[in-house]
TrEMBL record:
Transmembrane segments: none annotated. Residues 4-62 form the HTH lysR-type domain. This is DNA-binding transcriptional regulator, LysR family. PANTHER family: HCA OPERON TRANSCRIPTIONAL ACTIVATOR HCAR, TRANSCRIPTIONAL DUAL REGULATOR HCAR-RELATED. The keyword DNA-binding applies. It comes from Crystallibacter crystallopoietes.
Length: 302
């Protein structure tokens, strides 16, 4: 059995969040010398250098140290899960759940989930991180999130997933646009129209892909990093957008201006919104309960 303590693992797992040893020690409420001793003890167990400690250059983890910190975070979480899941075995789910959510989904999905949570599971504490695939996937792999709610689009291998609801690409138009009079819109009709691009991974790549499949090129006049900005510009008549359908969408911009939402015919991207987590990890009963709640709330509104 490896000769290290859980406290030493907790200290080392925190190191990637700090630029210097002194900053880490201050945040962890431990002396710098005690933190250095903990690192040295772990390096003796590991049999190799885990970090480089230079006053002029700060703190830098070696590749082995980065791997060690990532695995240490998972071990600490598993230890916390052990205690919390004992309460779950007795019939009460309690403790933290770290939930990631794709940025354009957050304002439609999270309020309903968080509203229902106190009634369904009053002793769960959900901590939310919002971001794009390029931000959420590394956080999942590093053990910083239990799971993330994302689009099942361009996901790499190595993740378990559970479908929450089905979705498809739709045209979002100014209400007085000529195409808004139609029940459906053909992508070819949109190619020459000014497109307000939602600039986010994987949305941007998918938009270019669906046009290319039809031998078309979009007329991108602006790219916005936030979906609410895209919708606001559409609401002011500056162009149209292509966005995935979502529940609870009122057809209004953040400024209260109406937009017309029309399905594409023939359909373009049809996919799912799903909860994902690394294949080498198991969902805790707490995290699984949050996924169950999301499915129950959102799938019924699809």
């Amino acid at each position: 059995m490896a000769n290290f303590t859980l406290r030493q693992l907790e200290l080392f797992a925190a190191l990637p969040d700090f630029p210097t040893l002194s900053a880490a020690a201050a945040s962890l409420r431990i002396s710098e010398s005690a933190l250095s001793q903990a690192i040295t003890a772990l390096e003796k167990v590991a049999g190799e250098q885990l970090c480089v400690r230079r006053k002029a250059r700060g703190l830098q983890l070696t590749p082995a140290g980065q791997f060690f910190a990532q695995r240490a975070r998972r071990l600490i979480r598993d230890a916390d899960d052990l205690v919390n899941d004992l309460a779950g075995a007795a019939g009460t789910l309690k403790g933290p759940v770290k939930l990631g959510c794709f940025s354009s989904l957050a304002h439609n999905l999270l309020p309903g989930i968080l509203e229902a949570l106190p009634t369904a599971h009053p002793q769960l504490n959900v901590d939310v991180t919002v971001g794009t695939h390029t931000e959420l996937l590394p956080a999942l792999d590093a053990g910083l999130l239990d799971m993330a709610i994302v689009y099942d689009m361009q996901l790499p291998a190595g993740y378990n997933q559970r479908t929450i609801y089905r979705t498809e690409l739709e045209a979002v138009l100014p209400p007085d646009h000529k195409l808004a009079r139609q029940d459906t819109v053909d992508l070819a009709q949109l190619a020459e129209e000014p497109l307000i691009m939602y600039d986010s991974s994987p949305s941007t790549a998918n938009t270019h892909h669906v046009f290319a499949e039809r031998g078309l090129r979009p007329n991108v006049v602006s790219s916005m990093p936030q979906m609410v900005l895209v919708q606001a510009m559409v609401g002011r008549g500056l162009g149209y957008a292509l966005l995935m359908s979502r529940p609870n969408s009122p057809g209004l911009t953040v400024e209260g201006r109406p937009v017309a939402i029309r399905p594409l015919s023939p359909p373009a991207t049809r996919t799912t919104v799903c909860a994902i987590w690394p294949e080498d990890m198991s969902l805790s009963p707490r995290a699984e309960a949050v996924v169950d709640l999301a499915v129950r709330i959102l799938d019924s509104q699809d």
